[in-house]
Amino acid sequence: MMNETRRIIRFTLNGRAATANIAIYETVIEVLQRDFNLFGGRESCGQGLCGCCTVLVNGTAVSGCLYLAAFVDGAEVVTVEGLADRGVLHPIQQAFVSKTGFQCGYCTPGFILMTEQLLKRYPHPTDDEIRHYLSGNLCRCAAYPDIIEAVKAAANKIQAVESDP
Amino acid sequence: MTIPARFTEPADTTVEAPPKAKRKAAVRREVGRSIPRLESHAKVDGSAEYIYHLRLPGMLQGKICRSTVPHGRIVRIDASAALAIEGVHAVITGEDIRTLIPDPYYGPAFHDQPILAIGKVRYVGEPVAVVLAADLHVAEEAADQVVVEYEPLEPVFDEVAATKPGAPIIHDSLRPAGMFPDLQYLKGRSGTNVALDARVLHGDVEKGFAEADQVFENVFRSRKVVHATFEPTVSLAELNGSNGLTIHTSSQSPSYVRAEVSRLLGWPENRVRVRTAFLGGSFGAKLYIKLEALVAACALLVRKPVRIGLTMEEEFYTITKHGATVRIKTGMAKDGRIVAREVETWWNGGAYADIGPRVSQKSGFTAAGPYDIENVSLINYAVYTNDPPAGALRGFGISQIVWAYECQNDIIARSLGIDPLEFRRRNILHDGRPHATGTIMTNAEIDEVLDRLSDRMHWDVLFDHGSGPVRRGRGLAIGFKACIAPTTSVAVVNVYGDGSCCVSCSTVDMGQGSDTAMAQIAAETLGISTETVRVIHPDTDVTPYDMATLGSRSTYHMGNAVRLAAEDARAQLLRIAAATLQTDIEELEYRDGAVISRSGARMTMRGLMLARFGMQAGTVIGMGTFTPPYTKPDPRTGQSPQITPYWMLAGAAAEIEVDTETGRIRVTKLVNVGDVGCAINPAIAKRQLNGAGTMQLGFTLFEEMRFNEGQVINASLADYKIPGMLDVPEDLSAELVEFPHEHGPFGAKGVGETGMFSVSPAIANALCDAIGVRIMELPLTPERVLRAIRESENRPLESE
Ligand code: FES
Ligand code: FES
Predict the structure, then answer these.
(1) Which atom of ligand 2 is nearest to the CA of B281?
(2) Which residues of B touch A130 (CB under 8 A)?
(3) pLDDT of B291-326, one tens digit each?
(4) Residue B142 lies in a domain
(5) Is residue B768 assigned to a domain?
(6) pLDDT for B761 beyond 60
(7) How far is CA B471 from CA B217, B542, B792, in A?
(8) Are residues B647 and B508 in the same domain?
(9) What is the Cα Rg of chain A in Å?
(10) In A, residues 140-159, which contact B (CB 8 Å cutoff)?
(11) Is B181 contained in some domain?
(12) Which ligand 1 atom is the nearest neighbour of the CA of A42?
């Protein structure tokens, strides 16, 4: 590790060009936290099991605690901090606020980003689809019923926006 | 044993519950509404502050080198290989800490836990050394290079075996901390692993058994489980300019941390500043001292800021819930009344006492259940073993106890042919009756809890148990807890020149929504809107003393302190106005940042400030202190007329399906009813009940720390499964029983733990209802269920 290989990566981070000097063993989460001061993606289990570290890479949700930073070279990375539009929360975020889809909030960014991906694939998910799609995200406070409500509210919100542009 | 005369009227379970002549809640604007949480925005955009993410300029990261043996003498620590690694700043051992702190042992009940091991280790995972480096990866690699040689000693892991003569002794002698005078008698006791034996004696239990028509005796066990908070435990320390130390920590008890770190260093408390932020969950894991003393010592030794943040794996080595063995013996009269109950409980406290003795005692005295029993004997042993230390976990021991008495109550009810609900109705402890400690039950809505359970479950409707391999069953259980005493909360409410207001208090918002609740209470009192109140996060330089955020005490204690502080601020503003307007204070009301008199005169904040400070600026500071009354129990009998400020009553009921071919239980319906006084924020209170219920569902069905010779073998979320979305029952509901508590702030009591109490026995009782199989040990894993099924069919599975 001490004779590490470093490299420069260039990628798009929340819509803006970004460059980082990384060690090849570093994960996306480490680099986002250290070089970009972004803590919305956060490590908890460190093993790809809880989803707290979820970030979107080229539109796909990945576990940032396992995903090597080297692999985002040239990619488009979105974190929860990139969802709001000039201070206006994304409809999914609004729904998590209005339904209080959280308690301690540590898992919340991960759920929000996973919901983003879910609603792209299933704009009108059933309860079952929500449960299955989000089953890889864990919440130790067990805010699950409220999270499900938030996802449904978000789907409605997005639907309303789209049908009434 | 003598008890006061007024406590001795004969038990008569046929009396009706006292009529509910309850006060009607006054019209309120802020309290009692499900106001969205104040920090919502920060929690969905990633900006909410957690200490785990704090980086201090120039800081070193610490990685702990941990013991690999459960019990042993440290022969030698060789850090040379670690120190040779480029980038390693220092390797700190227990002996280094001693140069700074000669007696580096801490703990809330006993001063038994060394900051780093000295001479001896007592569990696998115990911190032995810390490597400090600017780069965490370097520290991690170097921690693996620290060589520690041990001379193994015989370990003991089982809580009952550890109390037997000849068991290996884990601590040479007991060292009670000064905080609890009632533990002082244990000082210097040696040759024992029992850190505390606490008793409650009520009536004459031997006579009760002799007179009973039938006696039941069972042993119930709960295994160790872990909090697994998603924000791992973390602390940072830095020297501050004024000859002091600042500790940033994910702590539920900042005031305690200040006091204990000061004590260790031999400093006055004002040289130690402790601050917290939001906690990413805690559930009792982040209480008292965890990493704070270690980072403080490291920072002082190397004169640089130091951060130590645990990994999820390390959480398993830091603090756990108590495993417990409960022997419960109950004497029954023919008419289905419990006439005597004896409960003996061994609490597996692990290698260091932490708050274990308090868990044993405070939960232990409720071990007969919320029942009216004439003859009771309760004995609790807080036991040292070579497991990781056990402390508080959401319920403080209550769920281990309820597991025993509510399972046994079902066993008895079934054996006597009494419906389980009816059995409980016949025996419950009504308001106005003495509990086994002699304290009278008041403001305890146990009848109502039972009624709601019955309604929600349609208990009187015939239930379809199914046929074929999947059988259905339903079960219920009730439980209760006495809020911890004695404790104090202090709050300050600061009204600024423009009428806006801040609440300063050391209550920690770890997800339970206390910021919002405290803001609601201040807003209600001051007649302003909750959204305009700001709650300052704990910082011992700024926020006043609070015992800790634990045991569902904050809403009641801190809520009252905040209410009193806001009332104080309001009274001061009214006095200013009364003097200026030359009116009686009774004529005045403070609302929306202005004082209004009955005659219609109005003084705005500007006017009030001008009148008080001669200019339109200033501050009015209200203070509130709340310490509910408490009487120490008699050490011999556990009797006290006032053992708790309030009782928390809970009930749960479950419908399950069990696959008799695989042993897998699926909970299809779970109802959790909690007696919460009046909810300050009903949606938050329900979310707490559901959250707790789901957490306990995990403890009931699959969570279990597994050990091999003291080594945790499933210290990761890969092998230690916690509830996910698919585990949540399709029909999950929470119900609040709301009758105002006479001394609660706006009638409120605590709720954070209530949803944990009764879930496990409700499910086990449902299992028995489904297939007639009784399991005495948690968790109810498919394997354990299948083994029990096969056992009952006389074709047991091969043992492991
Ligand atoms: S921290 Fe990455 S999945 Fe848990
Ligand atoms: S809200 Fe605490 S972990 Fe999900």
Answers:
(1) 2
(2) 725
(3) 999 999 999 999 999 999 999 999 999 999 999 999
(4) yes
(5) yes
(6) yes
(7) 28, 58, 16
(8) no
(9) 16
(10) 140-148
(11) no
(12) 1
